[in-house]
Design brief:
By secondary structure, the chain is mainly beta. About 0% of the residues lie in helices and about 60% in strands. The N and C termini lie far apart (about 35 Å).
């Protein structure tokens, strides 16, 4: 499975950004897709996940600000990030879970200035 992420960048606090991630290759069997992030000096953490059936999971810190959606026909997941905060600054990694194995995208930087 190969994952191609787009989006990210730099915004001021309160702004918004959108991340998209498209899977290709051995896509049969992909269930969960979503995003993790890793800030400098911190462990990678789950941000949002969505199953093939559309069941979502969010980190408590983003629950009311971020929205994850999915297009199964395009094997694409989108993360709409609103009301961004400086603490959202991190490298965001797309993830796809296929038959129990995790596949990761290369990561895209999101920087939120105060």
């Amino acid at each position: 499975v190969q994952l191609q992420a787009c989006g990210g960048g730099m915004v001021r606090a309160g702004g918004c950004l959108r991340l998209t991630c498209t899977a290709s290759g051995s896509i049969f069997g992909i269930n969960d897709m979503g995003w993790y992030r890793q800030a400098p000096g911190k462990q990678r953490e789950m941000v949002a996940l969505i199953s093939f059936a559309g069941i979502t999971q969010y980190a408590d810190s983003v629950r009311d600000r971020f929205l994850i959606s999915r297009d199964n026909a395009k094997i694409m997941v989108t993360l709409q990030m609103d009301r961004l905060k400086p603490e959202d600054t991190a490298v965001y990694f797309c993830i796809a879970r296929n038959l129990g194995e995790d596949f990761w995208g290369r990561g895209t930087q999101v920087t939120v200035s105060s």
